[in-house]
């Protein structure tokens, strides 16, 4: 293994292409390593196909978790293995933890690079415990007391259709899912759905008990959008019609400067190793947030969400998971 300041640690597989079998053989050691580091890159595996990526993902993170409540389209490659989110190549994707707004979220992410881009496109990681400790105590205290609230509008000309996000055409199944997962919902005509859910902003890691900043307060915020995009959406849909936005747990709006501050703290704690073909990034999804740089050229990256973790709904009196 080698480490460099500002870079995600890299584990070098044997000189000969190791393939998915090597990853499966060293599963226990790799799990110990992700517990210690939070995230690392495996390099030199020879992983080059979708089937390879699926095998590696299952070896490291089974059982894999189907995505619910998706916020952006993905291509399904196999059960629990997806393309990266459809997101403009010239725009960054800021730090977040996958499905941190869901009560059942992945404990591990396995991200496989089949084709590295011409430039940029790195997947950054940030230590969620360090971010928690670096944020102002009064801000953290408020979010620990109140949690955070996510409001989403599905359907219409803009935003994710609810049929894709929930994987069903049956409204009764969506309603059942929402009731089972502490999500308030309201239908709007034939195609629209508005949901509101209150979640914890801070959890304790189930193994280390370390307190972690675990949410998508900044990522799923209207203030993280490009200003011209937000202005257009507000003009077209109204302030309550945005595809998503985050609020304090009380329902009060989160100020733009708070979102800026959170993103600044993330940036200070970001590590990123540029992709090479065949790289496999392993991320503890609770202990680390992740992001994506803008890029040029073709980029093929697959993601698997596995080792599911069940989180309780927000309680105003406790921050542990």
UniProtKB/TrEMBL annotation:
Its cofactor is Fe(2+). This is TauD/TfdA family dioxygenase. One of its GO terms (molecular function) is dioxygenase activity. It comes from the Bacteria. Signal peptide: none annotated. One of its GO terms (biological process) is antibiotic biosynthetic process. InterPro entries: AlphaKG_dependent_hydroxylases, TauD-like_sf, TauD/TfdA-like. Keywords: Antibiotic biosynthesis, Dioxygenase, Iron, Oxidoreductase. The lineage of its organism: Bacteria, Bacillati, Actinomycetota, Actinomycetes, Pseudonocardiales. It comes from Saccharopolyspora hirsuta.
């Amino acid at each position: 293994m080698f480490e460099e300041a500002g870079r995600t640690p890299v584990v070098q597989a044997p000189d000969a292409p190791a393939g998915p079998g090597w990853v499966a053989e060293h599963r226990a050691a790799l799990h110990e390593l992700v517990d210690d580091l939070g995230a690392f890159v495996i390099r030199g595996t020879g992983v080059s196909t979708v089937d390879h990526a699926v095998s590696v993902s299952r070896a490291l993170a089974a059982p894999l978790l189907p995505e619910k409540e998706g916020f952006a389209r993905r291509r399904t490659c196999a059960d629990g293995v997806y393309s990266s989110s459809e997101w403009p190549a010239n725009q960054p994707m800021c730090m977040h933890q996958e499905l941190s707004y869901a009560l059942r979220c992945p404990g591990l992410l396995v991200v496989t690079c089949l084709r590295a881009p011409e430039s940029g496109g790195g997947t950054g990681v940030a230590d969620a415990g360090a971010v928690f400790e670096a944020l102002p105590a009064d801000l953290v205290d408020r979010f620990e007391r109140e949690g955070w609230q996510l409001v989403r509008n599905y359907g219409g000309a803009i935003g994710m259709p609810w049929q894709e996000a929930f994987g069903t055409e049956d409204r009764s199944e969506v309603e059942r899912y929402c009731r089972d997962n502490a999500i308030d919902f309201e239908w709007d005509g034939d195609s629209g759905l508005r949901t509101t859910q209150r979640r914890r902003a801070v959890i304790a890691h189930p193994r280390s008990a370390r307190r972690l900043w675990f949410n998508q307060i900044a990522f799923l915020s209207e203030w993280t959008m490009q200003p011209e995009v937000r202005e257009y959406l507000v003009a077209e849909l109204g302030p309550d019609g945005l595809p998503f936005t985050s609020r304090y747990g009380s329902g009060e709006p989160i100020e733009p400067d708070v979102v800026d501050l959170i993103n600044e703290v993330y940036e200070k704690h970001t590590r990123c190793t540029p992709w090479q073909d065949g790289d496999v990034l392993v991320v503890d999804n609770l202990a680390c947030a992740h992001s994506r740089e803008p890029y040029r050229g073709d980029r093929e990256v697959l993601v698997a969400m596995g080792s599911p973790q069940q989180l309780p709904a927000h309680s105003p009196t406790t921050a542990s998971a």
